Backbone:
């Protein structure tokens, strides 16, 4: 037993350190802090970028499940991707998650070809 004690102690410390905390179900958001809310953007276009009041927030795919925390309020949202028409909309962020589902449309030239 004496020779296994360091291994047992290490496993207990690592198990507590790595496994502790609150477990949330996958796919659910935690409650928003007071005065905050969540904008959830669903867009299947690769490389689609999120802008909030004309400020770049990153690509949709780089945010966990497309979720951005924002203070409660009204915002101008735009979603842009190369080779696609941009999407613009106004959203009201509240303490409940706000979902925006977007399908960007590809640019098409006069001959009916996409701009890829």
Residues:
């Amino acid at each position: 037993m004496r020779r296994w004690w360091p291994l047992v102690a290490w496993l207990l410390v690592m198990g507590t350190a790595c496994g502790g905390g609150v477990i949330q179900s996958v796919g659910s958001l935690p409650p928003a802090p007071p005065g905050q809310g969540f904008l959830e953007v669903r867009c299947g276009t690769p490389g689609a970028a999120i802008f909030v009041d004309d400020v770049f927030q990153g690509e949709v795919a780089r945010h966990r499940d497309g979720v951005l925390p924002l203070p409660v309020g009204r915002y101008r949202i735009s979603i842009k991707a190369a080779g696609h028409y941009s999407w613009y909309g106004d959203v009201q962020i509240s303490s409940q998650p706000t979902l925006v589902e977007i399908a960007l449309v590809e640019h098409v030239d006069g001959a009916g070809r996409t701009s890829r």
Summary: The CA atoms of residues 16 and 47 lie 38 Å apart. The chain has one helix and seven strands. The radius of gyration is 22 Å.
